[in-house]
Amino acid sequence: xxxxxxxxxxxxxxxxxxxxxxxxxxxxxxxxxxxxxxxxxxxxxxxxxxxxxxxxxxxxxxxxxxxxxxxxxxxxxxxxxxxxxxxxxxxxxxxxxxxxxxxxxxxxxxxxxxxxxxxxxxxxxxxxxxxxxxxxxxxxxxxxxxxxxxxxxxxxxxxxxxxxxxxxxxxxxxxxxxxxxxxxxxxxxxxxxxxxxxxxxxxxxxxxxxxxxxxxxxxxxxxxxxxxxxxxxxxxxxxxxxxxxxxxxxxxxxxxxxxxxxxxxxxxxxxxxxxxxxxxxxxxxxxxxxxxxxxxxxxxxxxxxxxxxxxxxxxxxxxxxxxxxxxxxxxxxxxxxxxxxxxxxxxxxxxxxxxxxxxxxxxxxxxxxxxxxxxxxxxxxxxxxxxxxxxxxxxxxxxxxxxxxxxxxxxxxxxxxxxxxxxxxxxxxxxxxxxxxxxxxxxxxxxxxxxxxxxxxxxxxxxxxxxxxxxxxxxxxxxxxxxxxxxxxxxxxxxxxxxxxxxxxxxxxxxxxxxxxxxxxxxxxxxxxxxxxxxxxxxxxxxxxxxxxxxxxxxxxxxxxxx
Length: 563
Fold this sequence. Notes:
alpha/beta; single chain; 4-stranded parallel β-sheet; 18 helices
């Protein structure tokens, strides 16, 4: 099977997707989900047993949904709203079908476990208008005050193609891209582990930028600068330059930044439909049972305290002052919540796991959307014949501007700016309207003859995830030297090696995943936690469909020395 190295700017031909199982733990989650034997079972004596699920985002609701199917009674706690960072909002006073994705908005075909649930609840997807994607009418790259209009990479100046070639060579020479891509496509586990084990040992202490600098292909500072501003897949990646190169390699190996699709009607529909869904195959519960019906329509409120009690139980106190004790619990909220928002006993986790939680590095991220009267950007400039506005990548404050079309002459939305890290922090003190004014000024310098403001039909909506009290950041991104910490958190679901008094509480969520920042990681770690709870309560999988814990000894991530 052939493979293609991602270009330095997005686009390219459609390729058969690999699965985002990733090189660290190449377990076939999609096959596990699709198997007719199901994910496993618990003893009949445990049917109806309550299991706390803390966090009502995608990971929490996948966990709760699958535990319910096994005959357990998940008790979901949610501090804010169901969906987590799958957050879809409307615009006040506008058509309710016009929405903005403040969190996850684009998903790669390699997210095959995620796709299982998208299909399960009957949602449809559509191509997402990334820069230079086939569905995107046009793209403008604006750097250092000079703009270039393009439909494909071939329309850009030669230097951009040179940067694309430098990235290709850098990946081949420094990270065995083609070999790893083919091994993942073919699910060749021994080959994946051979290649990745060597790379982890060689590159754990290397930054993304350092990886570029040591490659002869990126000897030119100008090429590194352009790459940082234009990048690959969704655009610029310079905000990730301080992060571990291993994080970036996971993205490119699994094609996580390629061929994205959005969920029609908004991504938050996925967790909300899981909450309401009545599974066809249920153990213990009567037909018609759903997570919603088990909770009388509303999850429990925020958790304020977690501690262990006699019999190795996990005891949960919520914002209403109610205290309940559970044989097992799954924590799916962002891990920093355990450090600041929830009172926790030290004995919830081994000390090295607390260290890993404290060292977790989160990236900031912000977005701002405005509603507009129609997709006016498709109008043609009478002089140039070009679109009057394009999907825009720039080194100005806006960085990435996305044009979201709902059909001819129908109200549409513009994501005026999508930024990360330092670029996100620049917006933090500003109100939504103040942000919009700065963004419109920046875009006015790129499109001086276009009255964008004249098309705006409502107030902007915005988010800065670092300012959200129940998130404190957008997603985890490991720094150099953090591999060992991430391994502790990801492997926490396999608890045979833990002391007996440290078992029964399981971590899940995309910051526990190797593929942080992607909904696929939230799903995968949820499935790990489901296996962990099942095993903890004396259950097992069908021999024909072993789960992630059953294959842990075979697939466990490479272990680096601690000395």
